[in-house]
Amino acid sequence: MTVRAARSDRPTAVAVMSHDVADLVLPHPLRTRLSQLVRLLPESRNIEPGPALEAALADAEILVSGWGCPRLTADVLAKAPRLRAVVHAAGSVKGLVSDALWERGIVVSSAADVNAGPVAAYTAALITLAARRTLTMAAGYADGWPEFATRSGADGLTVGIVGASRIGRRVIRELNRSEAAYRILVSDPHLTDEEAHRIGARRVELDELCGRSEIVSLHAPLLPETTGLIDAAMLALMPDGGALINTARGALVDTQALTRECASGRLEAYLDVTDPEPLPPEHPLAALPNVLVTPHIAGAQGSEAERLGQYAIAEIERWLAGEPLLGEVTRDALPRLA
């Protein structure tokens, strides 16, 4: 995209995100491009909550937020009287927005669509590992060549997708593109049978999904009604040798119940999120050979993070042109999002 010439009437913008991701999300070429669109405060990349942040927000019309940005409470927004748009160069905005923001009529956009791609690809990779019972095979290797322990394989491994979210749907697409012959079940209270068929899956209730799926992958938002959704009863329905994958939110799962199932050796677990997060170093899940715990790395990492910045800048361009935002988040839609 061609960089626009600087305008004298450029709105002021401030970027607030953790130091360790700022250079990844907004490397120099992107900061240069952004500076053609807005008057970007030069110190904005290194602002922490406190007086410096308050000073920057005082003039900001646009906030480019990212990982590490503080929650936009009424107190924070009181220091930002000119703020009109929040463009989040990351995924979920649930930890960022507050009622005060909606009441001010501030527009919110998220790069969650960009972040969804890496999460879906990561999840599909974990499903491939789980299909081969990788953790069980690796644990047995120390004692000699282990007995072949793959799952149903090419004849039709059943994978259950909990939540037809943007990521859940992408995972279903990834699986349907795979050469493996997956049977895909999906459980989502907002999904119809016809919609499930259209995206390449069969809709079932959660208990049937858990009972029939060798691999269960979680992609539901964390809501009061989904907290502890995968509890002891649901885990008990999973077949012996099954695997649970969670790249969504840790609190979707009853951690104690999952620990018991994995400690018995009955289930494997591939967890990019946990409850609590991070797990205490002494937690049993962290030491079990049939459990893989990773530190919330499924989303955009490394060079992928630059795509978040590119998306955010494109959203600012659309906003300045008076065009609809592709990643706009509304107050009504927020509860259904991850």
Automatic annotation (TrEMBL):
One matching Pfam family is 2-Hacid_dh_C
Q: Which residues form the D-isomer specific 2-hydroxyacid dehydrogenase catalytic domain?
A: 54-329
- InterPro entries the record matches: D-isomer_2-hydroxyacid_DH, D-isomer_2_OHA_DH_cat_dom, D-isomer_DH_NAD-bd, NAD(P)-bd_dom_sf
Where is the chain membrane-spanning?
Answer: none
**D-isomer specific 2-hydroxyacid dehydrogenase NAD-binding domain segment(s):** 126-298
What keyword terms does UniProt attach to this protein? NAD, Oxidoreductase
Q: Does the keyword Lipid biosynthesis apply?
A: no
| Cited PANTHER family | 2-HYDROXYACID DEHYDROGENASE YGL185C-RELATED, 2-HYDROXYACID DEHYDROGENASE-RELATED
Per the record, the similarity remark reads: Belongs to the D-isomer specific 2-hydroxyacid dehydrogenase family.
What is the protein name for this chain?
Hydroxyacid dehydrogenase
Name the source organism. Answer: Streptomyces kunmingensis
